[in-house]
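Sequence only, no structure available. Ideas?
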Amino acid sequence: MKELFLVHCVDTEGPLYESLTATFERIRQTFGLNFKPSTNQLNRLKAGKDVPEALRANVMDFVSDARLDYNATWTEVDAMLHELMSDDWRMRHADDFGNGYVFSWFVMDHVGFTTNPRQRALGFHAVYEHYQQILSEYTPEHDALYWHFHPVPFSHAANRASCNYSFTNCHIESIGRRLLDHLDFPSAFRPGLHCERPDIHLFLEMWIPVDFGNQAMPERAEDAIQKDVSGGRFGDWRRAKSTWGVYHPDWYDYQKPGGMKRYIARCLNLNARIRPITREEIERAFRQVRNGEPTILSVTSHDQNKMGAPITRYMDLIRDVQKQYPEVRIRHANAVDAVRRVCGVPEQSPVRFDIAWTGNRVDVRADKDIWGPQPWMSFKTLDQRYLHENMDRQDGNHWSFTFDADSIPLGSLEAIAFATNDNYFNSSAYRIPIVDGKPGEPESSFRNHKE
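Reply:
I predicted one. C-alpha cells follow.
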C-alpha cells in the first residue's frame, strides 16, 4: 500500500494584536502605499479601491478578513483550540487508517524584546507552559511539542524581524531553560520567518535532527512585488529542493544536499500570502507517492490565526485530489514520526547517560552514539541565571567537565542539566539538583520514544 504522510507544523507563538495604524504601516512597508489609517480606508482597500491595478489582487488579499482576523488574546486562542483539540473535529479530518488530525506544535519563547506593540506573550515558557496545559487537558495521542524561534532584531522590538541568531544568546537560553525547568530537549525545529542563515544552520546540526524549514518553490509574481519578502530576504529557499522530499544539507549552503546529518523537510504555508500550498503542489505529492517515492506533504500555519476553516479547505482539497490516485492512502503524523517513516530511520532506544562525580569533576558516558559532537549542558545558578557550556571530550562517548573558579563553582549552582538526541530522534534529558554545593540524584526524561 502506498502512503502519503501529512504533517501540520504550527508556529506556536500565542496571541497577536494589531492596531489599525499598524496594519497601514505594514501596507506601506510591503507595497509602498501611503494612506491615512481609518476603517473606511481599510474597507476601500478590501474592495480593491485606491490601489494600482498591478497591486490590486495582492493588497486585497493582504487586508482581507482572513488575513486580519487574529486571535488577539489567550481567550481567543483557547476558544479555537477547544474546537481543534476535540475528538469530533479531529475525526472529521481523519486519515485512511482511522487516525484523527495531528498537530506538531513548534513553540516559541518571545524573549530579548524591549517593546511589544503587538501584545505578544513575552517571557520564557509563556507560550510553552500554556500549551503544556492544553495538551495535558486534551491528551492528543500523536501531537508533540517542538522548538520554534525568531532571532532578536537590533531594535529589540517584538514586531520586527531578523535572521541573525548571532546577535544574542536568547535561542541558547530558550533551549537551556526548557531543559532545566521542564526536562524537555527539542528534536525538531521550525525557523522563525522560515529564515535560516549559516549561524543557525551550523547550530542546528550539532543538536537538532529534524528541520521543517524548506519552502522552496518558484517565486511568483505576487511574491516579487511584496517588498518585505522579495528577493530571498526572509525565508530564502530558492536553491533548495522544490519537490516533496527530505535531504541532508551541505556544510556551506543549507539549501543544497550535502554531507551533514540533519534532515530538512519541505513545508509550505497554509492560508498565507507567500509560498502557499496549492492544488498543484498537492497533486505533485500524490504523483511522487504513486511513482514509489516516500513523501511527506507538510504545511505550516500560526496559532495567532483562525486555523479551523483553512484546515477544512485544505483537507477537502486533498480528498478531491486523492480521487485521481485511488492507490494512495493518506496518513497523519507528527514531524518526527513522518521523517522516521519516510526516510526509513532504524528504530533505537534512547540514549542513557551514566553520570559520575569525582570531587568537582563530572564524567558523562553515553551508552551509544549521540546525535552531535557532545551532550548539551546547561546550568541554573542560585541567582537565577541560565548558562550553557561546552564539555571536554575524553574518548568515544565519554565527556567531562570541571566546576571551579575558571568555569563556575558548584556552590553557585542550583541545578545542572545534560541532554541529547540520538539518530532515531529520541531525546534524553537529565537534571541534577545541587544542594549546598553537592550534586543530588539525577532526574531523567525520554521523549519521542516508542514504548
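The chain has a mean pLDDT of 96.
Hope that gets you unstuck.
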